[in-house]
C-alpha cells in the first residue's frame, strides 16, 4: 500500500535488502539530490521470487528502482539516470566522460569493499589488506591528484557531480574499515567535509536517516536468506 502511494506521489521506490550493498550508492545519490524515496525491503526468498514472477526484474536480480514509470535494474543504469535527471552529470559530453571515468575507478574499489562482509572468515583479512593497499596506493592518490591539479572544490567542473557523491560515500566506508586511511590525503578530507556539509547530505548523515550502517552478521544472514 505504501509502495503504491509512493509511486503515485512520484517518489522512487527502492527494492533491496535492508543493508548497504549495491543500493547504498543509489541512496546516497538520491539523498544528495534532495529526493525523498521509499524502500521495499526483501526479507525472504519469497519477496525476491515475487518480483521475479511478476516480471519486474529483467535479469532476475536486484537492485531495482521504480522511478518515472520505469522499473530500472543494473546499478550503473540507475545511477546514470538519477545523475542525469538531477543535474549531477556535468555540463557536456567531455565532463560526463570524465565523471564516468572517475566513477568507474571508484566502482572497482567499491566491489572489494562490498564483498568484505560476505567473505568466508579465512578470506576477510586478505581482502581487507587489499582494500587498504589499493585505497592508499592506487585509488585515493589518483583523486587527491585531480583535486590538486585544478584546485577546485569538486572533482569535475567545480560543481557537485555523481563522482563526488560516490567518492565521499566510499571514503566513509573505507574509513570505517581503516580509520587511518585518509591520513595523507588532505584534499580528500576537505572534499568529504564539503560534501557532508551540504544540507541534503548532512540530513542523510544524521541518525535515523535511510543511510545503512556497516553490515553486521545479522545483516549478512538476512541477505543470505533472501538471495541464496
TrEMBL record:
Molecular function terms from GO: glutathione transferase activity
Protein EC: 2.5.1.18
Catalytic activity: RX + glutathione = an S-substituted glutathione + a halide anion + H(+)
Residue ranges of every copy of the GST N-terminal domain listed in the record: 10-90
Major enzyme class: transferase
GO cellular component, one term: extracellular exosome
Any Pfam family: GST_N
Gene Ontology biological process terms, A to Z: glutathione metabolic process; xenobiotic metabolic process
Domain GST C-terminal: 92-214
Entry keywords, A to Z: Transferase
Coiled-coil ranges (or none): none
Family membership noted in the UniProt record: Belongs to the GST superfamily. Alpha family.
Record-given protein name: Glutathione S-transferase
Organism per entry: Myodes glareolus (Bank vole)
Amino acid at each position: 500500500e505504501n509502495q503504491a502511494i509512493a509511486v503515485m506521489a512520484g517518489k522512487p521506490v527502492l527494492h533491496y535488502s535492508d543493508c548497504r550493498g549495491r543500493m547504498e550508492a543509489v541512496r546516497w545519490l538520491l539523498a544528495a539530490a534532495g529526493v525523498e524515496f521509499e524502500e521495499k525491503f526483501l526479507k525472504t526468498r519469497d519477496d525476491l521470487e515475487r518480483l521475479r514472477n511478476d516480471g519486474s526484474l529483467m535479469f532476475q536480480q536486484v537492485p531495482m528502482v521504480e522511478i518515472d514509470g520505469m522499473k530500472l535494474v543494473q546499478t550503473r543504469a540507475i545511477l546514470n539516470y538519477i545523475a542525469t535527471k538531477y543535474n549531477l552529470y556535468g555540463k557536456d559530453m567531455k565532463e560526463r566522460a570524465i565523471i564516468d571515468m572517475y566513477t568507474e575507478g571508484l566502482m572497482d574499489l567499491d566491489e572489494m569493499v562490498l564483498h568484505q562482509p560476505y567473505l568466508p572468515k579465512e578470506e576477510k583479512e586478505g581482502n581487507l589488506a587489499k582494500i587498504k593497499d589499493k585505497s592508499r596506493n592506487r585509488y585515493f592518490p589518483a583523486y587527491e591528484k585531480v583535486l590538486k591539479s585544478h584546485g577546485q572544490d569538486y572533482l569535475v567542473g567545480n560543481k557537485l557531480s555523481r563522482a563526488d557523491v560516490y567518492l565521499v560515500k566510499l571514503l566513509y566506508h573505507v574509513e570505517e574499515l581503516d580509520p587511518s586511511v585518509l591520513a595523507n590525503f588532505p584534499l580528500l578530507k576537505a572534499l568529504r567535509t564539503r560534501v557532508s556539509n551540504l544540507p541534503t547530505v548532512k540530513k542523510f548523515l544524521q541518525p535515523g536517516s535511510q543511510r545503512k550502517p556497516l553490515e553486521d552478521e545479522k545483516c549478512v544472514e538476512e541477505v543470505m536468506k533472501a538471495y541464496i
